[in-house]
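Protein details
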Amino acid sequence: MGLDHGAHTVGVSLSDELFLTAQPAEIIRRERESAIRGTLQRIETLVKERGVCRIVVGLPLNMDGSETERAEAARRFGEKLQRRLEIPVEFADERLTTVRAKELLEEMRIGWKDEKEYIDMMAANVILQEYLDNHRETLRKEYGTV
């Protein structure tokens, strides 16, 4: 599972069982950043329903690689997920994922009005697909899909 953590939304993407492709899944919304209980609950439900074995949370870094305040918030969010779900939670550099997500939406001919609706989910998809591309063989060996 790939997650793009934001102040009011979490974009969600899921992998196929062979760790080949990421598919956009949904956007989880909340009124306030601190209102996280429902978000955690929804992610837990998805983990159980879809047999998720690992979560990758996007880490928004500055272009020089230093961490932003949003990166610190993403780390805290990931730590809460780790404690609650007891499955591995990893962090992945998400620099330029929003740019790539916008490019994908343009290729799909999603208009600006609709783009805002899908951007977080597509960013989560880019995060997860890059992770899968870089870790596929390790994942297959670890989870027995080779």
The beta strands are 2-5, 9-15, 22-29, 55-59, 89-93. Helices lie at 37-50, 69-85, 97-107, 112-143. The chain is about 50% helix and 20% strand.
